[in-house]
Amino acid sequence: MNRKFYFLIFVIILGFTSCNPILTRFKFIYNAEGPNKEIVLRMEELLEATFYNTDIVLIEGLGTEENLDSLTLGSVDIALVENYVNFKEGINSVFSVYSEILQIFYKSEEEINSFKDLVYDRDLYIGKEGSPTHNLMLDLFEFYAIDYSRVSITQVLSRGDVVVELTNLLSDERLSQYTGYRLFSFENTQNDNSSVVEALSLTYPKLSPFLIPEGTYMGYVEKPIVTLSVDLIMVVRSSMGEVPVNDFTKTMLRNRQIFTSIDPLLYNGMKENFDQEKLNIPLHEGARIFFDGDEPGFFERYAELGGVVLSLIVAIWSGLASLIKWQAQKKKDRIDVFYEDLIKIKNTISGLKKINDIVENVRYIQASQNKAFELLISEELVANESFRIYMELSKETINELRSRLRTLKNLQAKAAAS
User: Fold this and answer.
1) pLDDT of residue 1
2) How many domains does the chain have?
3) Looking at residue 354, which CATH number applies to its domain?
4) What values do phi and psi take at 32, rounded to 5?
5) Are residues 208 and 261 in the same domain?
6) Which of 46, 251, 274, 412 has its C-alpha lying 20 to 30 A from 285's C-alpha?
7) Taken in order 153, 156, 162, 166, is the CA torsion positive or negative?
8) Is 402 helix (H, G, I), strand (E, B) or coil?
9) pLDDT at 297
């Protein structure tokens, strides 16, 4: 009976593998800001046209930190993020796509030339807490020794007397949204070219000086604007294979003309000779092989073909293993429910305004941890990597909630004192 069963599996999988090419699917997450959506759409089209057995699935993300979490958890393979994110294990860089420009708009009848005058006693919109824009501005506050008691940060863009954008050059339509605003320049180019931004780029090497030339925004600014830029980079999960990363990198960089029509900034991006030392996230080995001109060898290149030759042997074991994996999948589905609840809470932390809501979220996560351990003891969950990641992520989320709690208590204390 067992021999007949094995033979049946052999025949079914033999027929399947002989009629269907091996399709590899890669999930690509991005934030739909500036030209990013058009960039990833063209990347998808190029890669799928070049590699017939590749399927690129595009996912619109909820924010940079959330996208990075998806990478570290292995739920996506590729992402576009600013080179101003904190380093995380399990993620590697591939190449620089283009430079995003720091553009600070402010409401004032008079021109402001001092950063302190720009941020003091005004409502500032500096992006979502934890975002690259937010982190960059906090670094600027530190550099200029800003007195936080005179800084008011709003989470509502329309309420901002000062609005910070980290993006590409704005279109006329986008620029029209800032009617009544001025564009801040870190330097007066008539007196001093760019000493402050050079000092900033030395202090924070991920930043680069950037000059918006006179006439770039016709009728909006009457002089060159000295500001900063940060690279938008493609990143992948570290476990992604060297060969696909190498192939994707080579294909996109050697067809960069397809992308340069999207935005002028891409003319200076997507180059093979970009400064790798400025990467905040280490380069993936597959990308390094391409940049060093060390192409994968025969066995690396045709490992997939060799896999097809051996597929009959592997298929038998896979068929048998699938019976076991079915049970494992049931257990994985349970831990996925815990993940979904945790991510929902994590995504709302920055918006929590009530201490009771924070306390209830902490209690809920702690109760979920206890339930997960009960399922583990009853063998309805497996103590695998997913379980370990969930426990670590839940501890991290509790710490973030407690940090938010301390922040609210401090704000209440200051309000009571005033």
Assistant:
1) 42
2) 3
3) 1.20.58
4) -80, 65
5) no
6) 46
7) positive
8) helix
9) 55
DSSP symbol at 83: T
Residues 104 and 219 in one domain: yes
pLDDT of residue 2: 46
CB atoms within 10 A of CB 242: 17
For residues 189 and 148, membership in a common domain is answered with yes
Nearest to 137 by CA among 50, 70, 222, 204: 204
Cα separation, 35 vs 262, whole angstroms: 7
Sites in the chain below the pLDDT cut of 70: 1-21, 189-194, 294-313, 315-317, 319-321, 323-333
Helices and strands of the chain, counted as H and E runs = 15, 10
d(Cα 122, Cα 175) in Å, to the nearest integer?
21
For the residues of 188-251, what is the DSSP string, one character each? -TTT-SSHHHHHHHHHSTT-EEEEE-TTSSTTT-SS-EEEEEEEEEEEEETTS-HHHHHHHHHH
Exposure string (b/e) for 97-113, b if CB count within 10 Å is 16 or more? Answer: bbbbbbbbbbeeeeebe
Name the residue among 57, 110, 118, 66 with its Cα closest to residue 88: 66
Query: Element (H or E) spanning 305, and its range?
Result: helix 303-309
Q: What is each CA distance from 246 to 94, 252, 292, 296, 303, in whole angstroms?
A: 9, 10, 11, 8, 14
Q: Which of 213, 231, 249 is the last residue of a domain?
A: 231
Residues 156 and 259 in one domain: no
Token output for 203: 């202090």
- In order, the DSSP letters of 344-401 are HHHHHGGG---HHHHHHHHHHHHHHHHHHHHHHHTTSS--SHHHHHHHHHHHHHHHHH
- Give the domain range for residue 246: 2-95+234-304
In tens, the pLDDT along 258-271 reads 888 888 888 888 88
Are 105 and 221 within one domain?
yes
Closest CA to 265 of 256, 278, 252, 273: 256
d(CA 307, CA 401): 47
Ramachandran bin of 306, using left for φ above 0, alpha for ψ from -120 to 50, beta for the remaining angles: alpha
